């Protein structure tokens, strides 16, 4: 099963302090390098959520989750490689986190969430990065393709430059679609996203994806308006832990707003 959580990431200073206690030393050091403010709090929320959701899927305490990173920075939970594939994407006050319980033949998972940029910026980026056949269409169409391409790239742990030159498939429906790019074969599926955003999930190989979109944490869904997105009623994730310190979650600067 592939579960994908839409995470509300704006949290208070008090929540950020509590969630920071969940992180490992490397994550806390990375947080400390982020300027104090919303960006740091969102980082803490995102990585705490990733840890809690991974721990819940693996059936272990969150403090036992450890990460290692591939050549392009793809995180993997140490010791759980044969059981889970996970991936995180963030965009301002929102994030997506995917957890896939492995079965025979399942590949790696990748997700991407992006804000829709201004039309001129989208056209400029399309001309710079996309195949000539994909440079038409407006900003929403551009972003739909971008999220598929980046989800594809993240599933393989490859370089984004390789993924952006890959054809993203038709834009008339949500998929699933097969992508045959330089990194290997993949299936992609569009996801519902907050207003002004687009999102996609990808999995290496050729098996179809049947993603289930959830909100996390459950008690923040209505507060942040994510219980209904584009007409979809999102099922709620049961709370992972009864502690208030574990109630909130996520970040990364959106690709379409500029890379670090």
How many helical stretches? 6
Instruction: Count the beta strands.
Output: 12
Spans of 5+ residues with little confidence (pLDDT < 50)? Answer: 219-260
SSE topology string: EHHHEEEEEHHHEEEEEE
Which percent range describes the beta-strand content?
Answer: 25-35%
Q: Give me the Rg, rounded.
A: 17 Å
Kindly, what is the distance between the CA atoms of the first and last residues, rounded to a whole number of angstroms? 33 Å
**Which structural class should the secondary elements be placed in?**
alpha+beta
Helix content: 25-40%
Strand order of the largest sheet: 4-5-1-10
Description:
The chain has 260 residues and is an alpha+beta fold. The protein has helices at residues 13-20, 25-32, 38-58, 119-129, 139-156, 160-164, and strands spanning 2-8, 67-69, 75-77, 84-91, 94-101, 109-115, 177-181, 184-191, 197-204, 212-216, 228-229, 232-233. Strands 4-5-1-10 form a four-stranded mixed sheet, with helices on one face. It has a four-stranded antiparallel sheet with strand order 6-9-8-7. The chain is globular and about 50 Å long. 45% of the residues are buried. Residues 219-260 have low confidence and may be disordered.
What's the SSE blueprint?
Blueprint: E1 2-8, H1 13-20, H2 25-32, H3 38-58, E2 67-69, E3 75-77, E4 84-91, E5 94-101, E6 109-115, H4 119-129, H5 139-156, H6 160-164, E7 177-181, E8 184-191, E9 197-204, E10 212-216, E11 228-229, E12 232-233
Parallel strand pairs: 1-10
Antiparallel strand pairs: 1-5, 2-3, 4-5, 6-9, 7-8, 8-9, 11-12
Essential attributes:
27% helix; 4-stranded mixed beta sheet; 4-stranded antiparallel beta sheet; globular; 260 residues
């Amino acid at each position: 099963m592939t579960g994908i959580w839409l995470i509300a990431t704006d949290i208070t200073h008090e929540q950020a302090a509590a969630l920071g206690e969940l992180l490992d030393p490397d994550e806390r050091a990375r947080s400390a390098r982020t300027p104090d403010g919303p960006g740091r709090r969102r980082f803490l929320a995102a990585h705490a959520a990733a840890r809690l959701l991974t721990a819940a899927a693996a059936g272990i305490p969150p403090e036992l989750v450890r990460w290692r990173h591939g050549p392009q920075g793809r995180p993997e939970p140490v010791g759980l490689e044969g059981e889970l594939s996970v991936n995180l994407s963030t965009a301002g006050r929102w994030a997506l986190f995917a957890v896939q319980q492995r079965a025979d033949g399942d590949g790696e998972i990748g997700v991407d969430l992006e804000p829709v940029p201004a039309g001129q910026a989208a056209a400029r980026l399309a001309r710079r990065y996309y195949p000539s056949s994909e440079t038409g269409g407006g900003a929403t169409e551009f972003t739909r393709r971008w999220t598929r391409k980046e989800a594809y790239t993240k599933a393989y742990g490859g370089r984004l430059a390789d993924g952006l030159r890959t054809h993203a498939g038709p834009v008339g429906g949500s998929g699933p679609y097969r992508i045959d790019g330089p990194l290997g074969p993949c299936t992609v599926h569009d996801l519902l996203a907050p207003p002004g955003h687009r999102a996609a999930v990808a999995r290496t190989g050729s098996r179809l994806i049947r993603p289930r979109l959830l909100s996390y944490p459950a008690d923040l869904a209505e507060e942040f308006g994510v219980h209904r997105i584009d007409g979809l009623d999102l099922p709620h994730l049961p709370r992972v832990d009864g502690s208030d310190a574990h109630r909130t979650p996520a970040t990364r600067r959106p690709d379409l707003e500029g890379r670090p």
